[in-house]
Amino acid sequence: MEINKQHKKKKWFLPLVLSLVLSTLLVFITVFTSSSSSSSKLYKTQVKNELPRFVESKLRISDTSKDPIPKLAYLISGSMGDGESLKRTLKALYHPRNQYAVHLDLESSAEERLDLAEFVRKEPLFAKLGNVRMIVKANLVTYRGPTMVTNTLHAAAILLKEGGDWDWFINLSASDYPLVTQDDLLHTLSTIPRNLNFLEHTSDIGWKESQRARPVIIDPGLYSLHKSDVFWVPERRSVPTAYRLFTGSAWMMLSRPFIEFCVWGWDNLPRIVLMYYANFLSSPEGYFHTVICNAEEFRNTTVNHDLHFISWDNPPKQHPHFLTTDDFQRMVASNAPFARKFGRNESVLDKVDTQILGCNADGYVPGGWLTIQGNTNVTVQDYIIANTTKLRPGPGAERLKRLITSLLEAEDFRANQCS
Ligand SMILES: *[C@@H]1O[C@H](CO)[C@@H](O)[C@H](O)[C@H]1NC(C)=O
Ligand SMILES: *[C@@H]1O[C@H](CO)[C@@H](O)[C@H](O)[C@H]1NC(C)=O
Ligand SMILES: *[C@@H]1O[C@H](CO)[C@@H](O)[C@H](O)[C@H]1NC(C)=O
Ligand SMILES: *[C@@H]1O[C@H](CO)[C@@H](O)[C@H](O)[C@H]1NC(C)=O
Ligand SMILES: *[C@@H]1O[C@H](CO)[C@@H](O)[C@H](O)[C@H]1NC(C)=O
Q1: What Pfam families does UniProt report for this protein, alphabetically (predicted)?
Q2: What is the pLDDT, as a whole number, of residue 385?
């Protein structure tokens, strides 16, 4: 048996070795003859695949809209007792092309918030066109705390999700008021690139380094049910080295691509900076400024202006000075599209309504979309909503054009970006 087995083994061993040698030879021949072409193919596909290896490179900034007339998305927020002025500002800003989110924070009473919700639901124009929404799940917003920024991002996310294809996001409060009609604004904005971001900013943080960047604060609004002021941690921290801090005005007009960058978070910068600003006093004066100026793809899109007329006391106090009829001329001469801050029922608002906006009896600003049938005393029900792309720009458009042209054509336009 043993011998037989060995014999059998020998019988198949030789052909096996031979076939192995032959097949190896064949493989070698095929590889060498086609080596030049196949290796270059291999190389090419590798190069092609190079770009999407990092998922970030697939998530490019989205294109801006091609619609000849832009659309705006507004957030108007307020707190306790702001309900009536919020309604007034909303009506003065209303245009069917735009999208609106209104928010009354948790400090305002349930009745006041219900009243606003009712108003948004029942107002015939809003009900008909459906472009005004109230943030019903109210946020607790701490003055000077990061909850102000989270509230702004919250509204921006809602407007991104259900506001359609708007071009710019504008954050206002109930104590702001427009100085141009929406027809003026849309007309002037239709002439400029949609990727521009208007925010006043500087890297020269000066006194803010010791009073804002080094202290560490905690905002109870992040975890508490009740409103209380921010409090300070005894330790101080150093100024960031991973990115540069920028500061400026808390009022801005931001492009849709930049809002998407901030809200969607495919790049970690907006998220990291947000967490940093969680412990920063007056974060609305720095968050968006620091993100935009540290993002290579956006710093070139900044225009160093906040589009507001704000009158600071001299020397500046924590709050700007309330505007009155004495400021009317300076307000108009500033060419700015918005002004703040106005007291509730301030009489200069009536002057703005009649002399600049031409508000109707209901507080809406007529334009190309809203045609009056003879009598200026008529209410909304008597109006006819016409073609919303038809704009009727007035003197406000001229003023705004002067401002925007002076900003975009300034010799130091580039030098003022993120410097
Ligand atoms: C947004 O609006 C509020 C007013 O409700 C304001 O206090 C805040 O600073 C604004 N800016 C930002 C960047 O959130
Ligand atoms: C921004 O502008 C500078 C100077 O004009 C230019 O060198 C740079 O390539 C631009 N960056 C982007 C991302 O467009
Ligand atoms: C503003 O004035 C009108 C009448 O002039 C009044 O009905 C309204 O209650 C006032 N609102 C506030 C917030 O004072
Ligand atoms: C408009 O209404 C006011 C009061 O509501 C009235 O005094 C005025 O005469 C009306 N004007 C017109 C043109 O009807
Ligand atoms: C609306 O007006 C614009 C500009 O005046 C015009 O191009 C468009 O065709 C109009 N659309 C409708 C539906 O009438």
Answers
A1: Branch
A2: 67
Residue 130: per-residue pLDDT: 92
Ligand 1 pocket, residue 284 CB under 6 Å: yes
Distance 377 CA to ligand 4 centre (A): 6
DSSP percent split of the chain into helix, strand, coil, nearest 5: 45, 15, 40
Q: What is the pLDDT, as a whole number, of residue 40?
A: 47
Judge if the beta carbon of residue 111 lies within 6 A of ligand 2. no
pLDDT in tens, 251-284: 999 999 999 999 999 999 999 999 999 999 999 9
CB of 173 closer than 8 Å to CB of 338 = no
How do the domains of the chain map onto residue ranges? 71-367+393-416
pLDDT value at 19 more than 60: yes
Fold classification of 71-367+393-416 is: Spore Coat Polysaccharide Biosynthesis Protein SpsA; Chain A (3.90.550)
- pLDDT for 39 equals 47
Question: How many residues in the chain?
Answer: 419
What's the token pair of residue 151?
A: 């509230």
For residue 66, count other CB atoms closer than 10 A to its CB: 6
Phi then psi dihedrals of residue 227, to 5 deg: -80, 130
- Sign of the alpha-carbon dihedral angle for 394, 395, 398, 404: negative
Regarding the beta carbon of 374 and ligand 4, being less than 6 Å apart is answered: no
pTM of the model: 0.83
